[in-house]
Design goal:
18 helices; L-carnitine dehydratase/acyl CoA transferase (chains A, B); Rossmann fold; CoA-Trfase_III_dom_1_sf (chains A, B); formyl-coa transferase, domain 3; homodimer; CoA-Trfase_III_dom3_sf (chains A, B); 15% strand; 14 strands; transferase (chains A, B); CoA-Trfase_fam_III (chains A, B); 2 domains; alpha/beta
Chain lengths: 394, 394
C-alpha cells in the first residue's frame, strides 16, 4: 500500500526550523516536497551546527525526504515560476511573518485564482490575527510569552526555557497535522483552504492541568522543579551510581514501590500516612528513600522496580539515548547514506504505521540539486531553463 | 463545508491524558468520539484537579467534543458490546500498555475479523516492540529516558523535568496525526491499519539540533539554562519592573538591538566583536545590557524592540497569558457552558482552519450520559439496554 501522502506535491517556501519540520513530516508521510531556496544561499541552516563531509547534520536531519530547487522569489520571473509550480501543487507551506506572502503577490485571492484546490499551510509566531501578528518571533520568546517558562524550572532557578526549540517543533507538527486534515476535506469536497499553527498557541496547548488549575482557581502555579506539586514521593532518588527517576502514580503503585525498597512500614507513620502528609514531609521522606536505595545500582533498581510495575528509569544523556537498545528496537536512530557526504545519523520516525511505514526515500538535498528536474516537470524546456539560469532566477 | 473528520466514528478506550488528548484532537476535527468508561468509576481524571460545580476543569479541558458511555470491558457481555460498536466504527483509540488490548481478545486478527476498515491508534510509553515495551510508563520517566531532562535546566539545577506532561501530549498529538493520515489511506485503498506513537519516541523527535550535535560530534550537550549555547547576547535582561526576554537571532537583528539600547559601540570593542567573543565574555556583556535597560519598563522596551524587529517579550505567568489580548484575539481561551456545571474556561484550538474551523460541539460529558443513545444507534432495543444495565455491563 502507498504511503498516506503518495502523489501529493508540496511546494515548500519554509526555512530554519518550524516550517522545515512541518514539511519534513509531510515528506516522511510520502509527499513529494520541493524545497524552494534562494539561489546561492539556500536555507540558513545549511551553515549551522556541526558538519561532516560538507553536510550540516542539523540541516540533514530536518530536510530528509525533500528535493531542492533554487528560485529568486524577489524577481518577477521567479514569481512567475512559483505560480506555475503552484498550479500543479497540492500544498504550499510557508513560515514567513504573517502578511509577507500576500505582499509578495500571493494572497488568498491570488492563490485561489492559481489553484482553488491548494491547501496553504502557515507556521508563525503568534497567529495571523491579533495585536502581535507582526511581531518577529523566536522560540525563546514564545516559550516566555506562552507561560511555559514561568512554570519550567524551580523556585531557585527562576523561569527557565526548555533547551530544545519546543515552540518551533510543536507549531510545525500542528501545521503538518492541519494540512493533512485539510487534504482530507479537499479529497472530499474539492476545495483547498488556508490552515495555520502558531508557536505561542501550540505551546499553550501543552500546559495541560497547569492551565486548568490556573483557570479554575485563579492561582498562578509556581515552578516546582522535579517535585510533583501534589504527589509524594516522586522524583529523582539516589542509587549507588546515580539517580533513579521514580513516579509511583497511584496508591497501589506507591505500595509496590515502598515494598520493593523495604519501606512499606512508613505508611503506618502519621507523617507519611496520606498523600497530603507525604507532600508536607517530602524532604524527610525523600531522605529515607535515598538511604534505602543508595546501596544498589541504578540497573538493579530499574530492573526490580519495573518488574514490580513501578514507573522508573534513568536520566539518560543524549549519548546514552542513542545507544539505548529500546531506541534501536524502535528504529529511532537512522543511518542515512548521503551521496558525497558520508552517512548521516539522525532521529527516526515518531509515527509508526503497520502497513505504510515511513522511510527515508531520499536524503537531505544539496542546494538546488533538483532545480532542472522540477522545472522540466513543470513544462519548462531546456532553452527556458538555460535562460532562467542565465538570468539568475534559479 | 464539513469538518475534516465529519462522519468519522471513534471508539475511545483511553484514559488519563495521552490518549484522551489524542481523541480530543480527533473530536476537535469533527469526529464523533465515544468515550468508553468503566461503570461507576469512569476516567480517573474526573476526580483530579480543581473542580467547580462538580466538574474537574482538568477533565473538562481534555474531554470536550466527546460522548460518554459506560461499559464493563472485563465481562464477556461488555466485550460483545464493544465488538458491535467496532463493527460500525472508523477508529479505535487506546492507551493501554502494549499487549493489553490483545489480551482482552482484541488483537489485530480479531479486529480485522470485526472490521477490516478499522484504524487502530495506540499511544504508549516506549513503543510496542523492544525490551522496554512492557514497562509501565509515566511522563516524568519518559522525560528522563528520552534525554530531554539531561539538557533541560542549568549546570546549577542539574537535570530538570519540564513542568507540563510534555511526553503525554506530544505522543497523543502524533497518534492523532497518524490516525488522520491512516484514514486518508483507508479512504483511498479501503483498508485500515494499526498506527502508534510513544512518549519516549515523540519526545526524542523534539530534541532537534541537540540530537544532531550529539550524533555529529559524539559530545554530550550540557544544560545551559537560559543561555543559548552558541549565541550571545540572548536571554533575560533587567528592565525597571522585571525581565525582558531578548533573542537577536541574526547579525542585523543584533545591531538593531544594540542600537535600540544605546550600546551599538560595543561591537567595536575587541571583547565583543564576534559572536565567539561575545559568548566568551557573556557575563560582562549581559551586565552592560542590564545597566542599559534597567531604567525603562518592560512595556517600553517590548514596544521599542518589537518596532525595531528584535524578537522580545515577557515571561508571562499563566494568569497573564490568559489575560493577554493576543490570546483573546486568537481565541486561545474559551468559555464553554457545561449544563449543570456552570461555564468552564479552557485552552482553545491550536490548529486554525479558514473554512472548517474547530468548535466545541459539545462540552465534556457526564459519566455515561450517552450510554443509551450509543447502544440504540448500535441496534440495541430498550429491553436489551435494560438487561445490560441490570447486569452491570453498562
Amino acid at each position: 500500500m502507498d504511503q498516506p501522502l503518495a502523489g501529493i506535491r508540496v511546494v515548500d517556501l519554509t526555512r530554519i526550523l518550524s516550517g522545515p519540520f512541518c514539511s519534513m513530516l509531510l515528506g516522511d508521510l510520502g509527499a513529494d516536497v520541493i524545497k524552494v531556496e534562494s539561489p546561492g544561499l539556500g536555507d540558513h541552516v545549511r551553515g549551522l551546527g556541526a558538519g561532516v563531509e560538507g553536510m550540516s547534520w542539523y540541516f540533514a536531519s530536518f530536510n530528509r525526504n525533500k528535493r531542492s530547487m533554487t528560485l529568486d522569489l524577489k524577481s518577477d520571473a521567479g514569481k512567475a515560476v512559483l505560480r506555475r509550480l503552484l498550479a500543479d501543487a497540492d500544498v504550499l507551506v510557508e513560515n514567513y511573518r504573517p502578511g509577507v506572502l500576500a505582499a509578495m503577490g500571493f494572497d488568498r485571492a491570488a492563490l485561489d485564482a492559481i489553484n482553488p484546490r491548494l491547501v496553504v499551510g502557515s507556521v508563525n509566531g503568534y497567529g495571523s490575527t491579533g495585536p502581535y501578528r507582526d511581531r518577529p518571533a523566536f522560540d525563546f520568546i514564545t516559550q516566555a510569552m506562552s507561560g511555559f517558562m514561568s512554570v519550567n524550572g524551580s523556585q531557585e532557578s527562576g523561569p527557565m526555557r526548555a533547551a530544545p526549540p519546543l515552540t518551533d517543533l510543536i507549531a510545525g507538527l500542528y501545521a503538518a497535522f492541519a494540512i493533512v486534515a485539510a487534504l482530507r476535506v479537499r479529497d472530499r469536497d474539492g476545495e483547498g483552504q488556508a490552515v495555520e499553527a502558531s508557536m505561542m498557541g501550540g505551546m499553550m496547548s501543552m500546559l495541560a492541568y497547569l492551565s486548568a488549575a490556573q483557570l479554575a482557581t485563579g492561582k498562578t502555579p509556581a515552578p516546582t522543579g522535579n517535585d510533583h506539586p501534589i504527589a509524594s514521593p516522586y522524583g529523582l532518588f539516589r542509587a549507588a551510581d546515580g539517580h533513579v527517576a521514580v513516579a509511583p502514580s497511584t496508591a497501589p503503585t506507591l505500595r509496590r514501590f515502598l515494598d520493593a525498597i523495604g519501606l512499606i512500614g512508613l505508611l503506618d507513620e502519621p507523617r507519611f500516612a496520606t498523600n497530603a502528609d507525604r507532600v508536607a514531609n517530602r524532604a524527610a521522606l525523600n531522605a529515607l528513600i535515598d538511604d534505602a536505595m543508595c546501596h544498589e545500582t541504578q540497573e538493579v533498581w530499574i530492573a526490580r522496580l519495573n518488574a514490580a510495575g513501578v514507573p522508573c528509569g534513568r536520566v539518560q544523556t543524549l549519548g546514552e539515548v542513542f545507544a539505548d537498545p529500546q531506541v534501536a528496537a524502535q528504529e529511532m536512530v537512522l543511518d542515512v547514506p548521503h551521496p558525497g557526504h558520508g552517512t548521516v545519523r539522525m532521529t527516526g520516525f515518531p509515527m509508526k504505521f503497520a502497513k505504510t511505514p515511513s522511510q527515508v526515500r531520499h536524503p537531505a538535498p544539496d542546494l538546488g540539486q533538483d532545480t532542472e528536474a522540477v522545472l522540466a516537470e513543470a513544462g519548462y524546456d531546456a532553452a527556458d531553463i538555460a535562460r532562467l539560469r542565465a538570468d539568475g532566477v534559479v
